[in-house]
Write a structure and sequence with these properties.
Length: about 230
């Protein structure tokens, strides 16, 4: 956070959300506890508000160290709230992805997050606020197939793994020989899926330029009015 957004500007929200073992999936409760103790997080997504060059943005950041960044009900809800806040407050949304896909321990509940998050993206689109998504290593499966791939602007860090099914699954499905750089950020950039490849040290300046280009200063004034009305 501190490398990308204005120092001290990040305000974490949605901290009350917790995953529960709704399906009583074997060993899921234990894995949740272990992940919480390891990362000192309550799920794979941290969400809130921050500023870029004094421009307010709605932010969500995934952490792969929490159960592979998997998207369960809580992660999906945090992403949805991030996008809904952007739409409500008329500020840009920025989401950093790092995920192996949907969380299998939550079954259909995790897959439902794909539809829910995609609907939230459409809400941003309807009110005209920009949504920027950053693919980090890896960005895969259900996350890629939902909110990640439908952003207004998509950038990726160099050599990030980007795809739906992994190489082993593709091989089992009988897919023919693929290029050596298959499912890398460079490969999908070459084929038009993402807009730019940006090293982490250049991410702040790139995102700042994007937000300004997409109307960040305009959203700054509009967002202030909207916040006052909300109060």
């Amino acid at each position: 956070m501190r490398w990308t957004f204005d120092e001290g500007s990040f305000e974490e929200l949605d901290t009350e959300l917790r995953s529960i073992d709704t399906l009583v999936f074997p060993e899921y409760a234990e894995k949740l506890t272990a992940a919480e103790e390891k990362t000192r997080m309550h799920d794979s997504i941290v969400s809130g508000r921050a500023k870029l060059d004094d421009m307010p943005v709605s932010v969500a950041v995934a952490d792969f160290s929490f159960m592979g960044g998997s998207m369960g009900s809580v992660a999906g809800e945090k992403i949805t709230r991030t996008l809904e806040r952007a739409a409500q407050q008329r500020i840009p949304a920025i989401i950093f992805c790092a995920s192996g896909g949907a969380r299998m321990q939550e079954g259909i509940l995790s897959l439902m997050q794909m539809a829910k998050t995609s609907a939230a993206v459409q809400l941003c689109r309807e009110v005209g606020v920009p949504y920027i998504c950053i693919f980090t290593d890896p960005t895969m499966a259900g996350v890629l197939a939902s909110y990640a791939s439908i952003a207004d602007v998509i950038v990726a860090e160099p050599k990030s793994l980007v795809g739906f099914a992994g190489a082993r699954v593709a091989k089992q499905a009988g897919v023919g020989k693929v290029p050596d750089d298959f499912q890398t950020a460079e490969f999908v950039f070459k084929h038009g899926m993402i807009d730019a490849i940006v090293p982490r040290k250049e991410m702040r300046s790139t995102l700042t330029s994007l937000v300004k280009t997409l109307g960040g200063h305009l959203f700054l004034s509009i967002g202030s009015v909207v916040k006052e009305n909300i109060k």
